[in-house]
Design a protein that fits this description.
The protein is α/β, with parallel strands linked by helices. Helices cover 44% and strands 12% of the residues. The chain has 19 helices and twelve strands. Strands 1-2-3 form a three-stranded parallel sheet. Strands 4-5-8 form a three-stranded antiparallel sheet. Helix 7 links the parallel strand 9 and strand 10. Helix 1 crosses helix 10. It is elongated, with a radius of gyration of 32 Å.
């Protein structure tokens, strides 16, 4: 059996870290099992689905390295949905209902007041020919519900009974849902548009999707979907429901997603594989470490490693992980980006500063420290004057700093922080930064002399 999974976003907005985590988990599962990863746009929402978001999602996936083996759009599959719906109608498994939302709400309230479960009572199946004629005369258009297999006996038995649908979840282990506690779900709206549950099952069945890995908020939908697969005469895929993300403070993440779109993370300068690594490893039993290659993450991935507890997403943790990845990047991996920012210095400059960067664009700050005007911090004029007198002759290399500070120590008696901090402040304007032995030759003797005297270039 060829493993086949999918990512099915709705192009009604930008994808965020929660969305993309589902895509990444499915992608890694497919790659580990040498399977196929499909991208399926749920673009049937006529008002909210936008082509600009389709393009944005494609761009995000491409940036992250999540290449789809196939792409499908639900908006082009209306004929397939009509065919499946008609087949279910002919068997009495999809039936017309005429209640308005207000009528349904009042009915639920009456049921609750009587101590009954607030599920749909299948009243539409009890309508007489005369009642149906009256509804049609009023111009009412039906919505269509899928009749759950939760009754005993013939079709006239409308009273739901306890009916457990069981499955072995890839993440959560043995699971079950009682269909007897659920309303027959609406599959087609009054305007003829299909709900996602219906289109998703039709697509998964026709495309022979073998595994569906998605958020745990869909767990209760699984019983209905398994029943719908079976009603259509197809084998349900294997389901896995992963934990959801919460903010670092334990609150719901959904209210904070505007700043956590993949587009915004890309614009911040984060590395694609840092985002992928973090999304793949957060909430698992594996250490959260940067992986430069998708293959190494795929080899680690197993749905069983995902915790059942919510996973805490902390943007600061992601930036820290990004920094670790940047610290390992070779010059060839960044030279084009550095050139685009006007940063030169080649391999020597990059190797000097990369250990102090969270994102590659931070290199511009240190390029300016090396080459442009800074405001030297002068705390001890006499000390810095003596240091200037003791500067070694050109050419300078990575041993110059050690030679120079040894001379200063011998002449002034300064050591430790008292020796190094005044020099760093005068030469870089900062209390911390790249190793001075590496950055000193890049600043060069002329600028060093000026800065020791408290002057700008």
């Amino acid at each position: 059996m060829t493993v086949k999974a999918r990512f099915a976003p709705s192009p009604t907005g930008l994808v965020h870290v929660g969305n993309i985590r589902t895509a990444i988990l499915n992608y890694l599962f497919c790659r580990k099992h040498d399977g196929q990863f499909w991208l399926r746009f749920d673009d049937t929402d006529r008002e909210r689905a936008k082509e600009e978001f389709v393009e944005a999602i494609r761009e995000d996936l491409a940036w992250l390295g999540l290449s789809a083996d196939e792409e499908v759009r639900q908006s082009s599959r209306t004929a397939q949905y009509e065919l499946a719906a008609n087949q279910l109608r002919e068997r009495g498994l999809l039936y017309a209902c005429y209640e308005t939302p207000d009528e349904l709400d009042r009915r639920r309230k009456r049921q609750l007041a009587r101590g009954l479960p607030p599920i749909y009572d299948r009243a539409a199946l009890k309508l007489s020919e005369q009642e149906l004629a009256t509804l049609h005369a009023e111009g009412r258009k039906p919505h269509w519900r899928f009749r759950l297999p939760n009754t005993v006996g013939d079709a006239a038995d409308l009273e739901p009974k306890q009916t457990l649908v069981k499955w072995d979840d890839l993440v959560r282990g043995p699971q079950s849902v009682d269909l007897g506690s659920l309303s027959d779900p609406v599959m087609i709206r009054e305007d003829g548009s299909y709900l996602y549950t219906f289109t998703s099952v039709v697509d998964d069945a026709e495309m022979e999707i073998t595994h569906v890995i998605r958020g745990e908020d869909h767990t209760t939908n699984t019983g209905v979907q398994i029943s719908l697969f079976e009603a259509m005469g197809t084998t349900p895929p294997t389901f896995g429901h992963h934990n959801l993300l919460i903010a670092a403070d334990g609150k719901a993440l959904s209210k904070r997603l505007g700043s956590l779109s993949i587009q915004s993370l890309r614009e911040e300068g984060l590395e694609a594989m840092a985002v992928v690594s973090h999304a793949a490893l957060i909430g698992t039993s594996d250490a959260i470490e940067p992986h430069a290659e998708m293959a190494s993450l795929a080899s680690l991935f197993s749905p069983s490693k995902l915790s059942s507890a919510p996973a805490r997403f902390d943007p600061a943790e992601l930036r820290g992980l990004n920094g670790k990845m940047v610290h390992e990047l070779g010059f060839d991996a960044v030279k084009e980006r550095l050139a685009a920012m006007g940063v030169g210095g080649g391999d020597a400059f990059w190797m000097a500063v990369r250990g102090n960067l969270e994102v590659v664009s931070d290199a511009l700050k240190w390029w300016n420290v090396v080459n442009a005007d800074i405001v030297p911090v002068v705390e001890d004029d006499a000390f810095l004057s003596k240091a200037a007198e003791l500067l070694p002759e050109d050419p300078w290399d990575d041993q110059t700093w050690s030679q120079w500070t040894s001379l200063i120590k011998g002449e002034t008696g300064a050591k430790g922080k008292a020796l190094f901090m005044p020099l760093r402040l005068a030469l870089t304007g900062a209390k911390s930064g790249p190793e001075m032995q590496l950055i000193l030759p890049l600043i060069g003797s002329a600028r060093v002399k000026q800065r020791l005297q408290g002057q700008t270039a």
